[in-house]
Structures are given as structure tokens and as C-alpha cells.
Amino acid sequence: MIAKSQLVFVVAAGWLWLAASAAAQQAPAPSTAEPATEQEAGDDAIKPLFKVSSVELIRSSHAPELDIVRVRGLSSTENWSDPQLVAISRGPSADGMLDLLFVARGPDDASSATKFGPMEAIFVIEPGHPYKGIRVRSATNTVKLSQLPGYAEAQGREVDCSNCVGKTFVPKGGSAGGKDAVREEDLPASTRVLRENDGIRKLDTDPNRLTLILGPNDRIVEAFWD
Q1: Considering only CA atoms, which of 209, 174, 214, 215 is closest in space to residue 77?
Q2: Which one of 33, 53, 145, 158 is separated from 121 by 20 to 30 angstroms, measured CA to CA?
Q3: With 70 as the cut, is the pLDDT of residue 157 above it?
């Protein structure tokens, strides 16, 4: 499956309280949508995305002046849709930042590990806003943009484990390497590793948690996001 970058527009008005919208994945062109209803805001399928990769604020050159927040990131698998930016505070925080959460519609069930899904959303701020910067959070990181207009990006790179099955898991501090090794320090911090004799203490779900099941000699026999 070829991952497709998904894009939505969100218009922020007044104090930007839980404003969000989504454009269909296959839409021929993005369009502005109404703020999310109370029912949509409480949709259990809407989850934080795996990672924020970059935050950019673009300022229009013609009146009335608009600030356009453009956020790019990654979903844990290619099965996510409808990326959105949701304001998580009423007005600026004490440090003058606009706090946004990068979310999307997650899969209903556990998903086999695939390549990360590229995601993108836009949040439009009306003229005269009081914000000094933008802070965007995901399930695993936060990217802060302190200069407006401007650009900021996340550091580091995670392994998506789309080709981990059949390779050897190497725990932190291990010395094994090579193309057939999967090093723990290269995996997301929340990765759950189940060895042959391990039990599972709790039946919880998290579409941003990678689970690896190991066989003999720490060979990876299953990799999925649950």
C-alpha cells in the first residue's frame, strides 16, 4: 500500500475552543469546514497522532492578514485518516503560546506494522490574535514554534518496524548489529516487547504502541500496533 499524505483545513475563530475539521482523504481539493460538533469532539476513534514532524506558520501578504499554521507528522501505520488540529486551551497560555493537539481517526483494531503514514493539517488563525508562538503536541512528542512567522521541526528518527519480522531483537546495551538486527534504542520509547514466556498483565489498547512478540533466540515473530 502506498502511503498518501492527508491534508485538512481548520478555521480558528474567537478564542479557538476545540475548533477542528477534516477533509476527506480522497477529496480532489481541500476545503474549509465548520468547527467540530460536541459529538465529533467526543468521538472515541479520534486519537493523538504518533508524532509531530514540523510546525510552520505562514503569514498572508494581503489584508486581512491571516496566520496559517501548517503541521506535518506521522501516524503509526497507514490505516489512519482525517488528521486534525484541535486547540486544547481557551486563549493563550501563560507564556503566550497557542496549544494544539495533532489528532486523527485511528484504526478500530490492532494493525500489523507498516510504514509510518504521512499526515498534514492546517489551522487558520484570524487577524488580531494574541499568540506569541505555537506549541503542537502528539502522542510521543511536542514541537514548539517561538517565532512567528517561522518554522520548527522535531529531532530524531524512529524505526517503523514494517520489516522487523524475522530479525533479531537487540535490547539496550546489546552488541549485536547488522541488517538482521533490530536495536531497542532505535524503536519508539513505548514499544512493548513480549518474550516467549512473558504474560500480558493488562488488556489495554493503544494504536500508538508498537508490540513485538519474540520467538526463540529473540527472533521477532510478530510486530503490530495495538
Answers
A1: 209
A2: 158
A3: yes
Residues whose CB is less than 8 angstroms from the CB of residue 210 and which lie 6 or more positions away in sequence, other chains included: 76, 113, 161, 187, 188, 190, 191, 192, 223, 224, 225
C-alpha 38/C-alpha 60 separation (Å) is 31
Amino acid at 93: S
**Listed range (73-77, 122-126, 158-162, 215-219) with the worst mean pLDDT:** 158-162
Coil, strand or helix at 40 = helix
Q: How far apart are CA 155 and CA 141, in angstroms?
A: 10
Helix (H) or strand (E) holding 41: helix 38-41
57-75, pLDDT tens digit by residue?
999 988 888 999 999 999 9
What's the CA dihedral at 46, 50, 52, 53 to 10 degrees?
Answer: -140
| Cross-strand partners of 84 | 103
Q: How many helices (H) and strands (E) does the chain have?
A: 1, 16
Structural domains in the chain plus CATH codes: 6-153 (no CATH), 168-225 (3.30.10)
What are the contacts of 200-208 at 24+ separation with CB within 8 A?
A: 205/110, 207/47, 207/76, 207/77, 207/80, 207/106, 207/107, 207/111, 208/47, 208/48, 208/49, 208/50, 208/76, 208/139, 208/140
* pTM: predicted TM-score of the whole model, two decimal places: 0.79
